[in-house]
Design goal:
Helices cover 57% and strands 21% of the residues. By secondary structure, the chain is α+β, with helices and mostly antiparallel strands. The chain has 2 domains: 204 residues, no CATH class; 176 residues, no CATH class.
Amino acid sequence: MFSPFERLVAMRYLRSKKAEGFVSVIAGFSFAGIMLGVATLIIVMSVMNGFREELFSRILGLNGHMSVYSQQGPLYDYDYLKTKLSTIDGIADITPTIENQALISAGGMSSGILVRGITWQDFANRPILRDSITAGALEDFTGNTLAIGSVLAEKMRLKPGDKITLTSPQVKSTPFGSMPRQRSYTVSVVFDVGMYEYNSGFVFMPMDAAQTFFQMEGAVKALEIFLKNPAHLNEVRKAVTLSVEGQAGVYDWRDMNQSFFNALQVERNVMFLILTLIILVAAFNIISSMIMLVKDKGQDIAILRTMGATRASMMKIFMLTGASIGILGTLVGASLGIVFALNIEKIREGLQALSGTELFSAEIYFLSKLPAIIDWNEVFVVIAMAFFLSILATIYPAWRAAHLDPVEALRYE
């Protein structure tokens, strides 16, 4: 595509001389702009992918893809309904749950929490809970015990074996009037699922204890359904709705979290557009530097033309000169972005240690670690886009160089 002569001249034009210092400075800024634009775009898109994936996996890992609930109060005969739904193709697991608000008190401190009743088997079968235990033993999650989040345990200075008091919003009648229901429990497990909201506000209780505490003997609040493939959610939901035949209501994770994930998607798209402008500005810098280079090399172009160089050769020379800046900047930026994204948590910890400030607050960003997942298809799109803009930016300056009149360029020489 490029002859040795064209490559030789293009590479000579890339090397700066004192007389061309300003042109070289602009070319350097173009290189830096494309490098930083590509790197920033890859890093930000990877972090956005990581946020979405981490939030999605934790929310669905704890709450299930779909729930079946009674529209008239507690759900009785849930074992029969669970057996019936288990025959539907695409369902991986069904978990009976009880969920209600309560007040936890210990050591003079109190906090509002969400109590979720779950059986020991279901707790053990859910990887996000089983693998997140930081203190205590799973075998101790029986009887009048609780599993609490690490943030809640730290805030209330609790550890396995400590006693706490739960207060239910339900009241009971006594000779002194209506009183809130209270009961003492023992902390058996402390977990850390990597999400601040769950670590600070969720408490898991064995199913038998939850049924007693919330006065739901023989009943549950809902059946949580986990799917083998979340992509088949619509088909499985239709089958579940037909199976319950009006005995219960059905809702899936989209009914409660769709707006949240839509907001993440919109933010991700907007960030992509905004950061693409950095690459676009760098491409305009390439145009500026190439136009100045063409003007500075007018006499050289005229001499090469009179020696037999064709217009096509001149166009190729200046396209290769400008595109080399963009392509090299893209490759360096892509490498920098990928390395940064792969080590972003270590980099965050290092910057946090140097600055002495908290750069990623779990309380604000929901997650306890800064996630980054590289989508190689997106990386390819970013690189291809940067290549395209870099080559596109050279067309007009190269066209001007190719159509420069040698007579006009050498008139006063």
